[in-house]
Inverse folding.
């Protein structure tokens, strides 16, 4: 039975309303929809605009929930494991993914291929970093199968179970394995086994599914990014809809804060499909990332689709979701029977939501120690400094110094005429980049992916260039150094780009297409 949600009571008092207004302006978020679960009650309220210029946000506004999908994928895995116990081929958390996908799941390292389990994949301890550049450089119509098969071409940076690496690609891999195991789409499985039992009848598995129903499409929020206009001002850029099919269980869901209160309550009460699923929030690996909404603690943990922290003596489980134009934040304190969900129409809504969540938890837990308040204030201030810095345009000469601090003076001339660097370069993962000359500059319009990017290259020294990227709001690809390999015949045969931060400056190499 669906829980009645109250919309006119605390915790949304005037002080909270004022803080929301302040943070929406500071973080340039057009609107935010919020819900809180506390004890037997649920509350919700919406602020600001869902679709510019003037469509008001509501608590029934639909949002891509992005990576908060991961917890549903973890639960789907637990239920599939549970179902398998009654079959002739039972599986468990420790089954290697390669046994479920023997033809498809192959990694660059044989040991990793044969030893990475479902548990490893869903706890971000596989040793395979995220390789988020795949969203930009691979085709938008990539299938789940082709994504999984492409992983063999991506470098690992650590051995399994030794290091935390957030990996959308492995959540997508598990989603594909679940579909093979159950014989149905993951969205259908979630609807039947999770959403319907919880009464989540306003939750969907993809943007296209929402848009297929005109009344639902009307409630879908636009997604916005506050960016410089190149003339000294700023404007809200309307982002295109999120629709990368392999993303599936990594971040494809669409829902409302009202529906998510039913999910949060089940998590707190361990009821419905969550009964007996304590393993989902058991920490699997520690990590030390500062992140964008991590509490200022020396370490954190990750479970199965959940981050695990301790806030003022309380176990705190949470996850964010982000995509250009959208940000979400879900968390709960089970001992206090308290939880929250924020959904906003800017990726930076996560930052505003973080500060609001801390406010709500402090109000719940009572006056905080002065040192704690000082630590949180410092954390918020640092985030604002980062925002101000990121919004400032970077001059080419500053980018060169940042990327190549030891450039010779004068720099070494480039070894080839600019036009000789142009052409299409391909990576075996089915990623590619095409370089051309635009306005006298070497450029690349990487438009084949779901996160298109425009790159501009500035010569630094020799066959090294600095690239600036205009991927908005989510994945920062610049400024960064780019290296060309020129062979003995004087031909540019490869371009190396440091696309994966965990590789610490090592390049992903694209080879010139043989048709060039």
């Amino acid at each position: 039975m669906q829980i009645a949600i109250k919309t006119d009571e605390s915790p949304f008092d005037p002080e909270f309303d004022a803080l929301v207004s302040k943070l929406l302006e500071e973080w340039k978020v057009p609107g935010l929809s919020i819900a809180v679960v506390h004890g037997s009650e649920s509350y919700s309220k919406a602020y600001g605009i869902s679709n510019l210029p003037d469509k008001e946000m509501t608590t029934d506004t639909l949002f891509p929930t992005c990576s908060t999908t991961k917890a549903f994928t973890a639960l789907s895995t637990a239920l599939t494991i549970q179902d398998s116990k009654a079959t002739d081929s039972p599986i468990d958390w420790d089954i290697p993914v390669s046994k479920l996908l023997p033809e498809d799941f192959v990694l660059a390292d044989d040991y990793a291929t044969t030893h990475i389990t479902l548990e490893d994949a869903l706890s971000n301890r596989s040793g395979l970093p995220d390789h988020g550049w795949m969203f930009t450089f691979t085709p938008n119509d990539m299938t789940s199968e082709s994504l999984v098969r492409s992983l063999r071409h991506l470098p690992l940076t650590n051995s399994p179970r030794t290091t935390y690496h957030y990996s959308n690609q492995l959540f997508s891999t598990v989603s594909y394995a679940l579909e093979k195991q159950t014989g149905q789409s993951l969205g259908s499985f979630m609807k039947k086994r999770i959403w319907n039992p919880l009464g989540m009848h306003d939750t969907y598995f993809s943007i296209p599914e929402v848009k297929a129903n005109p009344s639902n499409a009307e409630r879908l929020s636009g997604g916005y990014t506050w960016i410089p206009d190149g003339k000294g001002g700023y404007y809200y850029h309307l982002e295109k809809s999120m629709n990368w099919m392999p993303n599936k269980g990594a971040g494809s869901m669409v829902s409302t804060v009202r529906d998510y209160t039913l999910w949060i309550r089940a998590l707190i009460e361990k009821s419905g499909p969550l009964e007996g699923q304590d393993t989902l929030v058991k920490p699997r690996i520690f990590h030390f990332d500062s992140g964008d909404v991590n509490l200022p603690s020396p370490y954190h943990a990750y479970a199965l689709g959940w981050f695990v922290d301790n806030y003022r003596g309380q176990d705190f489980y949470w996850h964010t979701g982000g995509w250009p134009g959208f940000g979400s934040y879900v968390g709960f304190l089970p001992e206090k029977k308290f939880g929250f969900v924020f959904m906003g129409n800017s990726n930076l809504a996560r930052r505003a939501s973080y500060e609001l969540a801390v406010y709500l938890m402090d109000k719940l837990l009572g006056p905080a120690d002065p040192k704690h308040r000082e630590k949180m204030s410092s954390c918020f201030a640092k985030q604002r400094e980062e925002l101000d810095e990121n919004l400032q345009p970077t001059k080419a000469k500053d980018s060169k110094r940042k990327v190549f601090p030891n450039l010779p003076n004068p720099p070494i001339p480039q070894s080839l005429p600019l036009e000789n660097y142009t052409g299409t370069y391909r990576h075996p993962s089915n990623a590619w980049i095409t370089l051309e000359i635009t306005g006298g500059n070497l450029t690349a319009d990487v438009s084949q992916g779901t996160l298109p990017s425009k790159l501009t290259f500035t010569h630094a020294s020799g066959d090294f260039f600095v690239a600036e990227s205009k991927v908005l709001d989510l994945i920062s690809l610049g400024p960064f150094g780019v290296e060309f390999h020129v062979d003995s015949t004087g031909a540019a045969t490869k371009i190396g780009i440091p696309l994966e931060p965990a590789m610490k400056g090592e390049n992903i190499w694209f080879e010139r297409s043989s048709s060039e």
The chain has a mean pLDDT of 92.
